[in-house]
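Teaching assistant's notes for section 4

Start the section by putting this record on the projector. Ask students to predict, before seeing the second block, whether Putative glucose-6-phosphate 1-epimerase will look compact or extended. Collect guesses on the board.
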Amino acid sequence: MMDISQLNEHFGLPGVLAFHATEGGLVRADITTPHATATVYLQGAHLTAWQPAGHQPAIFTSRKTDLAPGKAIRGGVPIAFPWFATRHDGKTGPSHGFARIQDWTLAFAALAGEDLHLTFTLGANDLSRSLGYDHFHLGYQLTIGRTLTMQLTVANDADTPLVFEEALHTYYAVADVHEIAIAGLDGVSYLDKVDSFKEKVQHGDITVTGPTDRVYLDTTATCTLSDPVRKRRIAVAKTGSNTTVVWNPWESGAAKLADMDPSEWHEFVAIETVNAATDAITLAPGATYTMQARVTLDELHG
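Reveal the predicted structure now:
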């Protein structure tokens, strides 16, 4: 791992990209492009802020989150790999996998036009090997500007198939979760995790009226989050993802989260770009798989 001075020397861009150490010992990249500001931590290649010019922040991160080595950051865009939630093979391991609590390597940084392009990589390490994952590589490309593009590529270096789940577990900032609506999943079947994993069908737009944890299966649809209080729409288009998860813990669930202030649950909704459950990926030896989410903001009229 490069230290702060090496990162700034190799990748720093005056007025655009600078690296800093936090009091807790993490490394943070502060980003200012012509059309947006953003923050990314090297632990987890974890984007915690993105704010296009002329808009309020689009990404929510808890004010109470731990910013310490080996502790998952609450909010932003955690990368879940190689499993979503708990391990799909029934064995034990960190919630949402190990990728979000490992330091990634910054491999590339460049300003192209008005967008900053960053590439992070993660390979096998002591933790992944202890969990049975020794022959893989991850590449994560962020394109930060007026729009936000997040692209995760998994490479299988083994001579046997690699079965994995993955997620870009994105927390979107909203004025009040009671007021929002999410379009795009009408008619899609989902597993309702707050109702004993019963399979249900979505009718119309999604509104959040209580604890919500829904796994929408076999869908590649774009989701559009309408936030009438802030008079904006957030569109989440995706490729390579066949699962969408919508989550908000509500007051009862937030009270159980030590890294979230009890008042924060109404300030976000998670719309997650995922491959999980029956949509888990089986990757052939030597193959790669890419999942992408592209986020755009526009004004909500009327």
